[in-house]
Write a structure and sequence with these properties.
The chain is mostly helical. Helix content is 85%, strand content 0%. The protein has one helix and no strands. The longest helix is centred in the middle third of the chain and has 45 residues. The protein starts with 7 loop residues before the first helix and ends with a helix.
Length: 53
């Protein structure tokens, strides 16, 4: 088994990058989910309004 010697500053930078990517993914996922939910709510209310008329 080969072992690689990793610079500790490089490791810290990679951990920071991975953390930021995780936060970005969470924000995108939340925005997408909220948008889909709001679109579904809008479609439902539009359908209800049509039925009332």
């Amino acid at each position: 088994m080969r072992q690689k010697i990793v610079n500790t500053s490089a490791t810290a930078a990679l951990e920071q990058l991975i953390s930021e990517l995780g936060e970005m993914f969470t924000e995108i996922n939340t925005a997408f989910t909220q948008c889909r939910l709001s679109l579904k709510y809008k479609q439902t209310t539009d359908d209800s309004a049509k039925q009332i008329r």
